[in-house]
What does this fold into?
Amino acid sequence: MKSMADTAITTEQETTEKTGTFAARSVKSNGRERDVKVEAEPVGPPKTVIREYFESAVVTVIMALFGMTFIVQAVKVPTASMENTITVGDHLLVNKFVFAPGPSLPILPQREIKRSDIIVFKYPGNPNNKSRDSEEDNIPFKVNYVKRVIGLPGDTVEVKGVRVFVNGEPLPEHIIAVDGTQAQMNQKAPLRIVGEEPRRPTDRYDVYYYQQNVEAAKVGQDVNSSSDFHFAINGKPTKVPQSCQDSSGQWHSGGCYFVMGDDRDNSLDSRAWGFVPRDLIIGRAMFVYWSYDETQPFSSPLDFFSNTRWSRTGTMVK
It folds into this structure.
């Protein structure tokens, strides 16, 4: 009796001393069981809330910088040269990847620049009016411009009245007449449409001219070109070169492009300062992610909501 009690006590003590390890059952190939001891892995100090937020913030910043550098970029439209396609106060997302240099792969959404694309580029400067380049909205190589591609490298472009010809053929543009007086009085407001041509199935996009110029073109009268224009006007076709100079005199190879604003009577574009070098092009305008009406007063924080053009949010640019 005494020996049985001693045995029981001894067994309980051994079980108590083994609590520092984890025991797991395994079965040998001959069916007999054996005990395998698994040592507990050391656990480091727990992460604090501040450290977790910091790590998340670092990852977010890295991803944002990568995206802004290689994929998309946000730009604000400060001028009316693309009214009413793009309005003053529109904030756009620009696809930088689609025109990325280098060989394009079938699995990637890359392609060459096409006629009628709306592109964002670094303003190359105006060699014919360098005094204008000192203005805040016209600083060469710093300010971003938004225009529509009209001529590709090797194309011949000519503007006759309210028609644009490329390689002798008129571009399929839908011409809309607007109130020129109102446009000149308030250049930040959308253009007021007063008439338009019947839309043809081949018309790819809208362009806007002052009503007086549209009427003059209909009866065969000359449409007076701005004194700022020097290219592709007055019966002098312009051939788009493969290489071109910017306002600083630097040559750019790799192709150049002739661009124009959709607000044709209120746009300083390739007609005024020449061509856009390929390496100054940032990307293709995709859509409006936010639009703010700058013609309205701002007197309280609530005006932010009332002056936001909610209907333009998500508008595709084309």
The helical segments are 2-17, 49-70, 180-185, 211-218, 270-273, 303-307. The longest strand covers residues 281-291. The CA atoms of residues 80 and 87 lie 6 Å apart. Confidence is low (pLDDT under 50) at residues 1-24, 64-70.
